[in-house]
Amino acid sequence: MEVVFWGVRGSIASPSPDAAFYGGNTTCIELSTNDGTLLFFDAGTGLREAGETLPDAGECHIFISHGHADHIVGLWFFKPLHSPRWTTHLHLPEWLSHIPDYFYQGGIFPVPFSELQGRVILNTLRDGEDVSVTRGPHRVRVSPFATNHPGGCLGFRVYADGALFVFTGDHEITEDAAAHAEAVEFLRGADIAVVDATYDKSDYRAGWGHSTWEDWVAANAEAGARHLVLSHHKPGRPDEELDTLNKKLEWLEKKGRAELYVAREGMRLTPGLCDATRRGSDWLVVLLEELSSYRDENAILDRILMKAREMTRADAGTIFLVEDEDLVFAYMHNDTLFSVNCAHKYAYATNRLPISTKSIAGYVATTGQYLNIADVDELSPDAPYSFNRDMDNKTGYRTRSLLTLPFFDNAGKVLGILQLINSIDPHTGKPHAFAPGMGLNVRFLTQGVSRVLEHSALERRNIYGILRMAAVHDPSETGPHAERVGSVAAELYQRWAERQGLMPDSIRYVKSHIRLAAMLHDIGKVGVSDLILKKPGKLTGTEFSTMRGHAELGASILSGGDSDIADLAASIALHHHQKWNGTGYTGVSDAGRLSGEEIPLAARVTAVADVFDALVSPRCYKKAWTFEQAMELLDKEAGQHFDPMLVKCMHEIAGLLPMIYKRFPENFEEAPAEVPAEDAAQTGGGTAPA
Ligand code: C2E
Ligand code: SIN
Ligand code: SIN
Ligand code: FE
Ligand code: FE
Q1: Residues 348 and 476 in one domain
Q2: Distance from the alpha carbon of residue 388 to the mean position of ligand 3, in angstroms
Q3: Which atom of ligand 1 is the closest one to the Cα of 585?
Q4: 283 Cβ partners below 8 Å, 6+ apart?
Q5: Residue 640 pLDDT more than 90?
Q6: What is the mean pLDDT of residues 91-99?
Q7: Which of 426, 453, 480 is the last residue of a domain?
Q8: What does each C-alpha distance from 308 to 238, 410, 458 come to in angstroms?
Q9: pTM higher than 0.70
Q10: Is residue 400 part of a domain?
């Protein structure tokens, strides 16, 4: 059994930025059984959204507690009622049998109920008369009971999958001893109970037909429902207040045996399992705060993927980024195939998928719509897209369910696609379909994240702008060169930090800063004359001492910026030619020379990455070396030029290097063609004369 909350507001829909977390839709709760029987309790505005996520054909049941507008207005906007391939059983309290027609006759809705395309089977509900619902092999029994609400209302006890779900509808038990005592009986033995907690003690309105949350917590202390969900929130009650309530519940929970929840749109509950995201908006606020401290989109994407998988119990997941006309595989996790620790190499994958409606991810990128596919083997033949099995065939992995969502920039342009693969059923450990509410939660996440990504994209665009200016002057300072040095520095740092046993969150944070800052290490070369920079042979002593100035010049260009990236970049620029043994330079003079661990770590890391890249790239004064030759030089210089621990780390990430170089290839058209024979023959050892 799974319970999904589509609408949790009472009285009137009240969407607003203040209510974005708990939601503004009125009551609608979905219950789906393990064999796929689908029931909805009440048809508030939340029902519309629920309908949008359903497949093209099927059968469902809607139980209406009473006819107050906030419990029925969603009905006319429910997709299955407009589809000839759907059958909807509409269960109405006996006093409401006129309601479907009344809406048309009263001028409230323009189309008579009888003309809706969907097949509707009406059923009448009476207090105490059980309704039996069967679709799969297992029976679902729904027992209506009368609640205390002006004009009458039914609550429901639902027996399915060996569990008991209770929904009170609207129900006033506050200051009514008889109703309170009855409520204890309704709740007794429930695995999940959803109750009308419109008020708290301070704003309770006697006789309006609703209760305070305090009374439900008290009633449940006697009744012992395992999960008590407070719902039907007062319209306009802001997220902040519901967060405070959540905190109180957390505290109360410690004293009782029940788990206490504030209902939230998109929340999903399974008896015996708690929803990891139920604790108020805290999780999202905390996550977005954490993400906005990262400056690098790789770190952000990695973290989003992790969070989205946690929320949907997805075994695997991929992030694609839009690059030109393609989707580029940017990130991949797969618990079955590999551990998260080795997943980072997929950050440099070069697989591309053209953006077209033929692939699932391409379809989502083109239309901006999200797709929830229960089984890729059972796609409708009418679907414009088909599942691409190449990846599964290559890896031996078996994809079944897919939840695919776009994320956007502020202008509404698709930045990328988040694809979650194989939601794991916690009971069987096997993949099953993603629950509709999961999509809702993840959409919430991707919306928040778009802002963070936009911010990091801005930072990246600034850095590219600076690099383009530099490249005009010095053809070796290209975008790909900077990307390679940044990526190698970031991976080196990660390896180093893992060896130190640093916390993953802190590693991710520093890594994301180092990647961007290291890209700017040579920016000071803009101040060095072309005659020196582009000289096709060895530099003279004077020329080289001018060249040394690029370190301090870079630092002075970058320092005084108002960003933490600029500060780190300034420090890297100043120190990246310092050597471990105390030689090297930070400028024209030898002033302020450091050695060993006095040299900032980010600069030591960048030194290794920069020299490695200079060696394996062609320069106007030398030709490209092989990776092996470059590694040999690093080994020889370990403890002299380089931090020996970092040289060790460089060997440990050796498997990543070819991927990084493939991901950011040099456009050699810009590189100088002519290399003088004597310099071309150079294969190692001799550094430039000082
Ligand atoms: P770069 O080309 O980006 O090289 C960065 C660093 O990589 C150099 O720092 C050096 O430590 C290492 N490296 C590059 N090529 C070789 C090589 O063939 N052998 C060895 N052992 N190491 C190499 P360095 O020496 O402080 O130079 C800083 C910058 O000065 C270089 O940046 C380049 O722009 C310029 N430069 C250095 N030597 C020459 C040269 O002989 N001719 C010209 N035209 N420019 C040079
Ligand atoms: C990771 O932890 O692998 C993501 C951080 C990054 O690649 O910058
Ligand atoms: C893939 O995983 O290769 C892409 C699946 C798809 O979106 O079609
Ligand atoms: Fe440099
Ligand atoms: Fe460089």
Answers
A1: no
A2: 5
A3: 26
A4: 276, 277
A5: yes
A6: 92
A7: 453
A8: 25, 21, 24
A9: no
A10: yes
